[in-house]
Amino acid sequence: MAKTVFITGASSGLGMGMAREFAQRGYNLALAARRSMEEFARELTDSYSVNVKAYPLDVTDSEAVKDCLKQVSEEFYSLDIVIANAGIGVTTRIGEGDFEEVKATVDTNIVGLMATVEYALPILRKQGFGQIVGLSSVAGERGMPSIGVYCGSKSFVTTYLKALQLESAREPIDVTILAPGYIDTPINQGAKSRPFVISLEKGSRELVDKIERKVSFSFVPGWPWAVVARLMRCLPARFLAK
User: Fold this and answer.
1) Taking CA 22 as the corner, what is the angle to CA 169 and CA 208, rounded to the nearest 5 degrees?
2) Domain total for the chain?
3) Choice among 55, 119, 150, 182 that is catalytic
């Protein structure tokens, strides 16, 4: 029987890329996003002969997240992998931007992820198995100028899910934290510099590979970001300040 994957933020970027990669590998998919994905769901169903359903969802609405996960678990009978992927970014120096945009980043990247995890866990525990996957970022390794709120939100994702790894260590639940570098998606296509950028296809393939292997934590791609992240953490502030 094919496994079922639930993905938030599946209408673009990494969410859409992972959805296509999972479909190619024979997984059934529950795709959630604020934008309509009915056409994309039909495309995947027709191309790969898997069961794909689209669900309208704003992850900042916690009750909607709860209801959506309940509906998915009932319609697919089980949930094998829950991927908290929905995320947005804002570029602004602290104290100089539109606070509503800053708040929206926190609401989506932190509160939305927490709601997905908090409401998925009881379902996974009841069925006796499952995997939680959270999308962090290389940006979570250190606060950087002009993307402070994004860095902070991704640092939270890593720390929060590492706590869950400890809490669920004696349960049949796996927790995977993935921290992408620059993968060619709309969230970073306007950046002035995108060092070591890789294609969405390659990035999605590596993400899904690591999810299938149930890794605990990994940068994507591992090289060179595992080394670069270590350098970022210890580089003197004078080289980064601006």
Assistant:
1) 50
2) 1
3) 150
Q: What is the pLDDT of residue 141?
A: 95
Q: CA dist 80 to 8, 49, 101, 117, 131, Å?
A: 14, 19, 34, 13, 6
- How many helices and strands (H and E) does the chain possess? 8, 7
CB burial of residue 25 (10 Å; 0-12, 13-18, 19+): middle
The span from the CA of 31 to the CA of 54, in Å, is 5
CATH number, position 229? 3.40.50.720
Q: What is the pLDDT of residue 129?
A: 97
Query: H/E/C letters for each residue in 52-87?
Result: EEEEECCCCCHHHHHHHHHHHHHHHCCCCEEEECCC
Catalytic, 27? Answer no
Range of the domain at 151: 4-239
Distance CA 24, CA 20 (A): 6
Query: For 59-92, what is each residue's pLDDT tens digit?
Result: 999 999 999 999 999 999 999 999 999 999 999 9
Place of tokens 């890329």: 17
Per-residue DSSP letter, 191:
-
Which residue in the block uniquely carries the two structure tokens 């529950």? 30
What is the pTM assigned to this prediction? 0.95
DSSP string, 80-112: SEEEE---------TTTS-HHHHHHHHIIIIII
